[in-house]
Amino acid sequence: MKINPPMLLKISKSYLKLIKGDNLPRYHFQRLFGTHFFHTETPTTNSIIDASSMDSNNFQKKATDSTLVSKIILYSFWKSSCSWRVRFALNLKGLSYEYRAVNLDKGEQFTSEFDKLNPLHYVPVLVDGDVVISDSYAILLYLEEKYHQRPLLPVEPQLRALNLQAASIVSSNMQPLHMLSVLRYMEERVGPEEKQLWAKFHIQKGFGALEKLLTGSAGKYATGKEVYMADVFLAPQIAVATKRFNINMSEFPTLRKIYDSCKALPEFQASLPERQPDAAL
Protein backbone atom coordinates (compact mmCIF):
# COMPACT_ATOMS: atom_id res chain seq x y z
CA MET A 1 0.00 0.00 0.00
CA LYS A 2 1.72 3.21 -1.20
CA ILE A 3 1.03 6.19 1.04
CA ASN A 4 1.58 9.72 -0.28
CA PRO A 5 1.65 12.87 1.92
CA PRO A 6 -2.06 13.78 1.45
CA MET A 7 -3.07 10.24 2.38
CA LEU A 8 -0.74 10.30 5.40
CA LEU A 9 -2.45 13.47 6.61
CA LYS A 10 -5.86 11.84 6.15
CA ILE A 11 -4.72 8.75 8.05
CA SER A 12 -3.27 10.89 10.84
CA LYS A 13 -6.49 12.85 11.34
CA SER A 14 -8.61 9.70 11.30
CA TYR A 15 -6.30 7.83 13.65
CA LEU A 16 -6.27 10.66 16.16
CA LYS A 17 -10.06 10.77 16.15
CA LEU A 18 -10.09 7.05 16.82
CA ILE A 19 -7.74 7.05 19.79
CA LYS A 20 -9.44 10.13 21.27
CA GLY A 21 -12.74 8.28 21.27
CA ASP A 22 -14.40 10.53 18.66
CA ASN A 23 -17.20 9.29 16.44
CA LEU A 24 -15.13 7.35 13.94
CA PRO A 25 -16.02 3.67 14.26
CA ARG A 26 -13.13 1.28 14.08
CA TYR A 27 -14.47 -0.54 11.07
CA HIS A 28 -14.65 2.70 9.04
CA PHE A 29 -10.95 3.25 9.69
CA GLN A 30 -10.29 -0.35 8.65
CA ARG A 31 -12.25 0.12 5.42
CA LEU A 32 -10.31 3.27 4.56
CA PHE A 33 -6.79 2.15 5.41
CA GLY A 34 -6.75 -1.61 5.93
CA THR A 35 -6.84 -3.94 8.90
CA HIS A 36 -3.04 -4.04 9.25
CA PHE A 37 -3.07 -0.72 11.13
CA PHE A 38 -4.74 -2.56 14.00
CA HIS A 39 -2.57 -5.64 14.03
CA THR A 40 1.00 -4.48 13.32
CA GLU A 41 3.12 -1.55 14.33
CA THR A 42 4.47 0.11 11.19
CA PRO A 43 6.60 3.20 10.49
CA THR A 44 3.41 4.88 9.29
CA THR A 45 1.67 4.53 12.63
CA ASN A 46 4.79 5.67 14.44
CA SER A 47 4.85 8.78 12.24
CA ILE A 48 1.24 9.49 13.11
CA ILE A 49 1.99 9.28 16.80
CA ASP A 50 4.97 11.60 16.49
CA ALA A 51 2.96 14.09 14.46
CA SER A 52 0.30 14.28 17.13
CA SER A 53 2.69 16.07 19.50
CA MET A 54 1.58 13.81 22.34
CA ASP A 55 4.18 12.71 24.83
CA SER A 56 4.59 8.94 25.26
CA ASN A 57 2.85 8.81 28.62
CA ASN A 58 -0.20 10.65 27.32
CA PHE A 59 -0.43 8.41 24.27
CA GLN A 60 -0.11 5.29 26.41
CA LYS A 61 -2.95 6.54 28.60
CA LYS A 62 -5.12 7.23 25.53
CA ALA A 63 -4.42 3.80 24.08
CA THR A 64 -5.03 2.08 27.40
CA ASP A 65 -8.28 3.94 28.07
CA SER A 66 -9.91 2.38 25.02
CA THR A 67 -9.14 -1.17 26.14
CA LEU A 68 -9.11 -0.84 29.92
CA VAL A 69 -11.61 -3.29 31.36
CA SER A 70 -13.63 -2.38 34.39
CA LYS A 71 -14.62 -5.39 36.44
CA ILE A 72 -17.08 -7.31 34.30
CA ILE A 73 -19.61 -9.47 36.10
CA LEU A 74 -21.60 -12.16 34.32
CA TYR A 75 -24.73 -13.58 35.92
CA SER A 76 -25.01 -17.01 34.38
CA PHE A 77 -26.52 -20.47 34.68
CA TRP A 78 -24.37 -23.33 33.49
CA LYS A 79 -27.15 -24.97 31.42
CA SER A 80 -28.28 -21.73 29.73
CA SER A 81 -27.30 -21.57 26.05
CA CYS A 82 -27.77 -17.79 26.12
CA SER A 83 -25.22 -17.52 28.92
CA TRP A 84 -22.98 -19.93 27.03
CA ARG A 85 -22.79 -17.70 23.96
CA VAL A 86 -21.78 -14.72 26.13
CA ARG A 87 -19.07 -16.77 27.86
CA PHE A 88 -17.78 -17.82 24.43
CA ALA A 89 -17.69 -14.20 23.24
CA LEU A 90 -15.93 -12.96 26.38
CA ASN A 91 -13.30 -15.67 25.95
CA LEU A 92 -12.77 -14.82 22.28
CA LYS A 93 -12.23 -11.17 23.18
CA GLY A 94 -9.88 -12.12 26.00
CA LEU A 95 -11.99 -10.34 28.61
CA SER A 96 -11.79 -11.60 32.17
CA TYR A 97 -14.95 -11.57 34.23
CA GLU A 98 -16.44 -12.59 37.54
CA TYR A 99 -18.89 -15.46 37.27
CA ARG A 100 -22.00 -15.22 39.44
CA ALA A 101 -24.25 -18.25 39.30
CA VAL A 102 -28.03 -17.93 39.16
CA ASN A 103 -29.64 -21.33 39.67
CA LEU A 104 -32.74 -21.32 37.48
CA ASP A 105 -33.77 -24.75 38.76
CA LYS A 106 -34.00 -23.36 42.29
CA GLY A 107 -35.73 -20.14 41.27
CA GLU A 108 -32.87 -17.81 42.15
CA GLN A 109 -33.84 -15.63 39.19
CA PHE A 110 -36.89 -14.51 41.17
CA THR A 111 -35.00 -13.04 44.12
CA SER A 112 -35.41 -9.32 44.79
CA GLU A 113 -31.70 -8.80 44.10
CA PHE A 114 -31.86 -10.35 40.64
CA ASP A 115 -35.19 -8.66 39.87
CA LYS A 116 -33.38 -5.32 40.03
CA LEU A 117 -30.96 -6.54 37.34
CA ASN A 118 -33.53 -8.12 35.05
CA PRO A 119 -37.29 -7.91 35.76
CA LEU A 120 -37.82 -10.62 33.11
CA HIS A 121 -35.87 -12.99 35.38
CA TYR A 122 -33.65 -14.41 32.63
CA VAL A 123 -29.92 -14.96 32.34
CA PRO A 124 -27.45 -13.82 31.23
CA VAL A 125 -26.99 -10.41 32.74
CA LEU A 126 -23.73 -8.55 32.20
CA VAL A 127 -22.62 -5.76 34.53
CA ASP A 128 -19.74 -3.58 33.35
CA GLY A 129 -19.21 -0.74 35.80
CA ASP A 130 -22.48 1.21 35.80
CA VAL A 131 -23.78 -0.58 32.71
CA VAL A 132 -26.31 -3.41 33.17
CA ILE A 133 -27.43 -5.43 30.13
CA SER A 134 -29.83 -8.34 30.34
CA ASP A 135 -30.06 -9.80 26.85
CA SER A 136 -27.38 -11.90 25.17
CA TYR A 137 -27.80 -10.25 21.76
CA ALA A 138 -27.53 -6.77 23.28
CA ILE A 139 -24.60 -7.91 25.42
CA LEU A 140 -22.60 -9.05 22.41
CA LEU A 141 -23.29 -5.85 20.51
CA TYR A 142 -22.22 -3.85 23.56
CA LEU A 143 -18.99 -5.83 23.90
CA GLU A 144 -18.31 -5.32 20.20
CA GLU A 145 -18.76 -1.56 20.46
CA LYS A 146 -16.74 -1.06 23.64
CA TYR A 147 -13.98 -3.66 23.39
CA HIS A 148 -12.45 -3.57 19.93
CA GLN A 149 -9.99 -6.41 20.35
CA ARG A 150 -10.84 -9.57 18.42
CA PRO A 151 -13.85 -8.24 16.45
CA LEU A 152 -16.94 -10.42 16.35
CA LEU A 153 -18.34 -8.67 13.28
CA PRO A 154 -16.51 -8.44 9.94
CA VAL A 155 -15.81 -5.15 8.20
CA GLU A 156 -17.61 -5.98 4.94
CA PRO A 157 -21.26 -4.85 5.24
CA GLN A 158 -22.82 -7.90 3.61
CA LEU A 159 -20.94 -10.30 5.88
CA ARG A 160 -21.82 -8.17 8.91
CA ALA A 161 -25.49 -8.38 7.98
CA LEU A 162 -25.22 -12.12 7.42
CA ASN A 163 -23.72 -12.60 10.89
CA LEU A 164 -26.42 -10.48 12.50
CA GLN A 165 -29.14 -12.33 10.61
CA ALA A 166 -27.83 -15.75 11.68
CA ALA A 167 -27.51 -14.58 15.28
CA SER A 168 -31.05 -13.21 15.18
CA ILE A 169 -32.48 -16.49 13.89
CA VAL A 170 -30.95 -18.32 16.84
CA SER A 171 -31.82 -15.72 19.48
CA SER A 172 -35.32 -14.83 18.24
CA ASN A 173 -36.70 -17.78 16.27
CA MET A 174 -35.16 -20.81 17.95
CA GLN A 175 -33.91 -20.52 21.53
CA PRO A 176 -36.98 -18.71 22.99
CA LEU A 177 -39.21 -21.56 21.82
CA HIS A 178 -37.34 -24.23 23.77
CA MET A 179 -36.18 -22.28 26.80
CA LEU A 180 -36.71 -23.84 30.21
CA SER A 181 -39.76 -21.80 31.23
CA VAL A 182 -41.54 -22.43 27.91
CA LEU A 183 -40.93 -26.18 28.03
CA ARG A 184 -42.16 -26.36 31.62
CA TYR A 185 -45.31 -24.55 30.56
CA MET A 186 -45.77 -26.92 27.60
CA GLU A 187 -45.30 -29.98 29.79
CA GLU A 188 -47.90 -28.77 32.27
CA ARG A 189 -50.43 -28.10 29.50
CA VAL A 190 -49.88 -30.91 26.97
CA GLY A 191 -47.42 -33.39 28.48
CA PRO A 192 -43.71 -34.28 28.14
CA GLU A 193 -43.94 -35.94 24.72
CA GLU A 194 -45.57 -32.93 23.08
CA LYS A 195 -43.03 -30.71 24.77
CA GLN A 196 -40.17 -32.55 23.04
CA LEU A 197 -41.93 -32.56 19.67
CA TRP A 198 -42.54 -28.82 19.97
CA ALA A 199 -38.87 -28.12 20.68
CA LYS A 200 -37.57 -30.39 17.91
CA PHE A 201 -39.92 -28.90 15.31
CA HIS A 202 -38.77 -25.34 15.94
CA ILE A 203 -35.08 -26.25 16.21
CA GLN A 204 -35.13 -28.18 12.94
CA LYS A 205 -37.02 -25.36 11.23
CA GLY A 206 -34.36 -22.87 12.36
CA PHE A 207 -31.47 -25.12 11.36
CA GLY A 208 -33.04 -25.63 7.94
CA ALA A 209 -33.14 -21.88 7.38
CA LEU A 210 -29.58 -21.42 8.66
CA GLU A 211 -28.26 -24.23 6.46
CA LYS A 212 -29.64 -22.47 3.37
CA LEU A 213 -28.51 -19.05 4.56
CA LEU A 214 -24.89 -20.01 5.26
CA THR A 215 -24.12 -22.63 2.61
CA GLY A 216 -22.79 -20.04 0.18
CA SER A 217 -20.68 -18.12 2.72
CA ALA A 218 -19.37 -20.80 5.05
CA GLY A 219 -15.74 -21.77 5.14
CA LYS A 220 -14.18 -23.22 8.23
CA TYR A 221 -16.65 -21.05 10.14
CA ALA A 222 -20.05 -19.56 9.31
CA THR A 223 -18.85 -16.71 7.10
CA GLY A 224 -15.33 -17.73 6.17
CA LYS A 225 -12.00 -18.34 7.88
CA GLU A 226 -12.63 -16.28 11.03
CA VAL A 227 -14.93 -16.81 14.02
CA TYR A 228 -17.63 -14.19 14.15
CA MET A 229 -20.96 -13.56 15.85
CA ALA A 230 -22.85 -16.14 13.79
CA ASP A 231 -20.52 -18.84 15.14
CA VAL A 232 -20.87 -17.56 18.70
CA PHE A 233 -24.64 -18.03 18.51
CA LEU A 234 -24.62 -21.22 16.46
CA ALA A 235 -22.15 -23.38 18.37
CA PRO A 236 -23.97 -23.45 21.75
CA GLN A 237 -27.32 -23.84 19.97
CA ILE A 238 -26.09 -26.89 18.06
CA ALA A 239 -24.58 -28.42 21.19
CA VAL A 240 -27.86 -28.05 23.08
CA ALA A 241 -29.88 -29.34 20.13
CA THR A 242 -27.86 -32.53 19.81
CA LYS A 243 -27.43 -33.33 23.51
CA ARG A 244 -30.78 -32.23 24.91
CA PHE A 245 -33.13 -32.78 21.98
CA ASN A 246 -31.34 -35.48 19.94
CA ILE A 247 -31.28 -33.48 16.71
CA ASN A 248 -29.47 -35.32 13.91
CA MET A 249 -27.00 -32.81 12.48
CA SER A 250 -26.24 -35.01 9.45
CA GLU A 251 -29.26 -33.29 7.93
CA PHE A 252 -27.39 -29.99 8.18
CA PRO A 253 -23.83 -30.64 6.90
CA THR A 254 -22.82 -26.98 6.71
CA LEU A 255 -23.85 -26.33 10.30
CA ARG A 256 -22.20 -29.52 11.48
CA LYS A 257 -18.90 -28.45 9.88
CA ILE A 258 -19.13 -25.03 11.55
CA TYR A 259 -19.77 -26.64 14.92
CA ASP A 260 -16.86 -29.06 14.55
CA SER A 261 -14.56 -26.10 13.90
CA CYS A 262 -15.89 -24.13 16.87
CA LYS A 263 -15.73 -26.94 19.39
CA ALA A 264 -11.99 -27.33 18.75
CA LEU A 265 -11.34 -23.76 19.91
CA PRO A 266 -9.90 -23.33 23.44
CA GLU A 267 -12.23 -20.36 23.96
CA PHE A 268 -15.23 -22.54 23.23
CA GLN A 269 -13.98 -25.40 25.39
CA ALA A 270 -13.51 -23.01 28.33
CA SER A 271 -17.11 -21.87 27.93
CA LEU A 272 -18.59 -25.40 28.08
CA PRO A 273 -21.41 -25.81 30.62
CA GLU A 274 -19.68 -28.63 32.47
CA ARG A 275 -16.64 -26.41 33.08
CA GLN A 276 -18.57 -23.67 34.87
CA PRO A 277 -18.38 -23.24 38.65
CA ASP A 278 -22.05 -24.07 39.15
CA ALA A 279 -22.10 -27.16 36.92
CA ALA A 280 -24.13 -29.91 38.60
CA LEU A 281 -22.20 -33.00 37.58
Automatic annotation (TrEMBL):
GST C-terminal domain sequence ranges: 156-281
One MF annotation (Gene Ontology) recorded for this entry: maleylacetoacetate isomerase activity
Domain GST N-terminal: 70-151
Listed Pfam families: GST_C_3 (PF14497), GST_N (PF02798)
Keywords: Transferase
Entry GO CC: cytoplasm
Highest taxon of the lineage: Eukaryota
Assigned EC number: 2.5.1.18
Family: Belongs to the GST superfamily. Zeta family.
Catalytic activity: RX + glutathione = an S-substituted glutathione + a halide anion + H(+)
EC class of the enzyme, as a word: transferase
InterPro entries: Glutathione-S-Trfase_C-like, Glutathione-S-Trfase_C_sf, Glutathione_S-Trfase, Glutathione_S-Trfase_N, GST_C, GST_Zeta, GST_Zeta_C, GST_Zeta_N
Any one GO BP annotation for this protein: glutathione metabolic process
The protein, known as: glutathione transferase
PANTHER family: GLUTATHIONE S-TRANSFERASE ZETA CLASS-LIKE, MALEYLACETOACETATE ISOMERASE
Keyword Transferase (UniProt): yes
